[in-house]
Design a protein that fits this description.
heterodimer, A: alpha+beta, six-stranded antiparallel sheet, three-stranded antiparallel sheet, B: 355 residues, alpha+beta, six-stranded antiparallel β-barrel, 8 helices
C-alpha cells in the first residue's frame, strides 16, 4: 500500500527525492486515520526547518495533527491548492495532496528514513 | 473495555472503533462528513448503548428526582421526557440528563463518562435524607438513536403505526421497547430503549430501511452545530446550568433541591461566565481549550473555546466558548490558534436550526 521509491517517517510523512529537492506529504494510512481533512496549515516559502521539527498542521473534522519535517532544508514551494481543496490529502495523498517541497541541506538524511517495506512493517505493528 | 451488543456488527461494517468512557465505540463508519450530512438530509442511526440508563422506583421516586435535579419533574405526564441537570451543592453540574416519567417509575439517561459517579452521587443523596426509592442501573437495556428528516417515515414503517401524534419528548411502548421522540443532533428523531438481545435485529431493520450508520464523530459535529452541550466540554462540576445557558431548566420555585441556593444567587446576580457561539472570520478552526482575547495583540484574555470544528453543514469554523460575562458583547474576539491571532465574532446559538 505504501508506494515504492518513496521514503517514510515514523510520523507517517512520505518523502519523494528528486536530486536535492524533496517533496513531502502524509501517507494514505495517516489521512485515513485523520478522516476528512478540512484545513492544512503550511509554512511560508523560504522557511528553514531542521529534520524532526514541525512545519505545519493538518486538521480533520475531528482533530488537529502536527506535520513533522522528515529532512532538513529550506521550503522552496508549497501546495497552495490545498487551501481551497484540503480534501486532496484524502483523495490523493501521494500525488495531488503533496504539501511542501524542500531543498535538502543533506540528502544523506534520507537514509535514516524508512523504505516502503519497513514502513509497511511499522503499520503492521 | 466494555462493548455494546452491536460491537461485532460494527467491526463487520468496517467501523473505526475507539475507546470512549470505558467503551469500545465506533467513531466513524464511512466518514464523519458523509454521516453528518446523511443525518441532516435523510436519516442516520447511532449506537448509544454506552449511555447509562438508571431507573428510580418507589414511593419517593418523584420527590427524590425533584431533590437531585434542577428542572421540575412534577410537570411531566406519563410517557414524557424533560432535559434536566443534577447539580452539586455549589450548583456545578454532576451530569446533564434526560428524565422520563413512566406510569410506575422514572428513568434517566446519563452520560457514559458519568454513569458510575452519578450512581454513587444518587445513592449518597438518597441515604442523606432516607428517601424510599430504589435506584437501579438498567444494564440489560441498550440505546439506539434514529435521527434525521426521514426518521419518522422509517420509524413509522418498522413500527407499523402512525407516530405523528407523538410530539417532541413524548414516548410510547412498542412491545417491550420504549421509544421516545428525542435526540442529540438538532434533527427530529427517535430513541429506542431495547433489551440487549433485541438491539442487533432492530439495528439491521433500520439499516434495511435506508438509515446510515453513524459514529461518535458525526454525533459530536451534529450536536455542536445544534449547540447542545456535552459534559466535560460545556459542563463540569464547576460549571452550572445557568452559566451553560440552561437557566430555563433550573426551576427555583419547585421547592428544595441540591444546589438551589447557589443557583438562585447566580440567577439573581450575573454569573461570572456565559456560554456563547463563536464563528471565525479568518482562516482557522477553533478547538477545545483555545484561549480567546478581546484584542488582536492577545493581551486581554476573555475566555476559552469548549468545543469547536469546521461545521460540515455551514462550512464555517464554529466553536462554543465561555466568555467572562463582564466583557459584555465584544465587537470582535480573537482566538489564539497555535500562536496566531484569528479574528471571529460572537453569533447567536444554535449555529444550525432545522427549517
Amino acid at each position: 500500500m505504501a508506494p515504492a521509491g518513496l521514503k517514510y517517517s515514523k510520523d507517517h510523512e512520505w518523502v519523494k527525492a528528486d536530486g536535492k529537492i524533496a517533496t513531502v506529504g502524509i501517507t494514505a494510512y495517516a489521512q485515513d486515520q485523520l478522516g476528512d481533512v478540512v484545513f492544512v496549515e503550511l509554512p511560508q516559502v523560504g522557511t528553514v526547518f531542521a529534520a524532526g521539527k514541525d512545519f505545519g498542521v493538518v486538521e480533520s473534522v475531528k482533530t488537529v495533527s502536527t506535520l513533522y519535517c522528515p529532512v532538513s532544508g529550506k521550503v522552496v514551494e508549497i501546495n497552495s491548492a490545498l487551501e481551497g481543496t484540503p480534501d486532496k490529502v484524502n483523495s490523493s495523498p501521494y500525488e495531488e495532496g503533496w504539501m511542501i517541497k524542500i531543498e535538502m541541506d543533506n540528502p544523506a538524511e534520507l537514509d535514516k528514513l524508512l523504505d516502503e517495506k519497513q514502513y509497511t512493517d511499522l503499520l503492521k505493528g | 473495555m466494555k462493548r455494546t451488543p452491536l460491537y461485532e456488527s460494527h467491526l463487520k461494517a468496517g467501523a473505526r472503533m475507539v475507546p470512549f468512557a470505558g467503551w469500545e465505540m465506533p467513531v466513524q463508519f464511512s466518514s464523519i462528513t458523509a454521516e453528518h450530512n446523511a443525518v441532516r438530509s435523510a436519516a442516520g442511526i447511532f449506537d448509544v448503548g454506552h449511555m447509562g440508563v438508571v431507573e428510580f422506583k418507589g414511593p419517593d421516586a418523584l420527590p427524590f428526582i425533584q431533590y437531585i435535579t434542577t428542572n421540575d419533574a412534577s410537570k411531566l405526564s406519563d410517557y414524557q421526557a424533560q432535559y434536566s441537570i443534577a447539580c452539586n451543592e455549589k450548583g456545578g453540574a454532576v451530569d446533564d440528563l434526560l428524565i422520563y416519567r413512566l406510569p410506575d417509575k422514572f428513568i434517566i439517561i446519563a452520560n457514559a463518562s458519568n454513569t458510575e459517579q452519578d450512581l454513587a452521587w444518587f445513592e449518597k443523596m438518597r441515604a442523606a435524607k432516607d428517601f424510599e426509592v430504589k435506584i437501579i442501573h438498567q444494564t440489560h437495556i441498550s440505546l439506539l438513536s434514529l435521527q434525521g428528516p426521514k426518521a419518522e417515515a422509517i420509524a413509522t414503517k418498522i413500527i407499523g403505526q402512525d407516530l405523528s401524534s407523538y410530539k417532541r419528548n413524548r414516548c410510547f411502548m412498542w412491545g417491550d421497547i420504549l421509544v421516545s421522540r428525542t435526540g442529540y443532533t438538532g434533527e427530529g428523531g427517535f430513541e429506542f430503549f431495547a433489551n440487549k438481545n433485541e438491539v442487533v435485529e432492530l439495528w439491521n431493520k433500520l439499516l434495511a430501511e435506508g438509515a446510515t450508520p453513524c459514529g461518535l464523530g458525526a454525533r459530536d459535529t451534529l450536536r455542536l452545530e445544534a449547540a447542545l452541550p456535552l459534559y466535560g466540554h460545556e459542563y463540569d462540576d464547576q460549571t452550572s446550568p445557568v452559566e451553560a445557558g440552561y437557566g430555563w431548566a433550573v426551576k427555583l420555585d419547585k421547592g428544595e433541591f441540591v444546589g438551589r441556593a447557589a443557583l438562585k444567587k447566580q440567577k439573581e446576580a450575573v454569573p461570572v461566565k456565559r456560554l456563547v457561539g463563536v464563528e471565525l472570520e479568518e482562516k482557522g478552526i477553533p478547538r477545545e481549550g483555545y484561549e480567546i482575547f478581546s484584542d488582536r495583540e492577545m493581551q486581554q484574555k476573555i475566555g476559552h473555546i469548549t468545543s469547536g470544528t469546521l461545521s460540515p453543514t455551514l462550512q464555517k469554523a464554529i466553536g462554543l466558548a465561555f466568555l467572562r460575562t463582564s466583557i459584555g458583547n465584544p465587537p470582535a474576539v480573537y482566538v489564539n490558534i497555535r500562536g496566531r491571532s484569528v479574528r471571529g465574532k460572537v453569533v447567536p446559538l444554535p449555529f444550525y436550526k432545522r427549517s
